[in-house]
Amino acid sequence: MLTEINFDGIIGPSHNYAGLSPGNLAATKNRGLVSHPRAAALQGIAKMRANIALGLRQGILLPHARPDHRWLDSLATQFAEAPPHLQAQALSASAMWAANAATVSPAPDASDGRCHLTIANLLTMPHRSHEWPETLAQLRLAFPGDGFAVHAPVPAPFGDEGAANHMRLTPAHDRPGVEIFVYGVSGGPYPARQHREASAAVARRHRLNPARTLFVQQSEAAIAAGAFHNDVVAVANERVLFAHEQAFADSQAFYDALRGTLPEVEIVEVPADRVSLEDAIASYLFNAQLVTLPDGGMALILPGEARETPSVWQWLQEMVAGNGPIRHLEVVDVRQSMANGGGPACLRLRVVADPATIDSRFLVDNARLDAIAQVVEAHWPDAIAQDEIADPALIARVETARRALLEMLEIVELTYS
Question: In the chain, which residues have pLDDT < 50?
Answer without folding.
Answer: 417
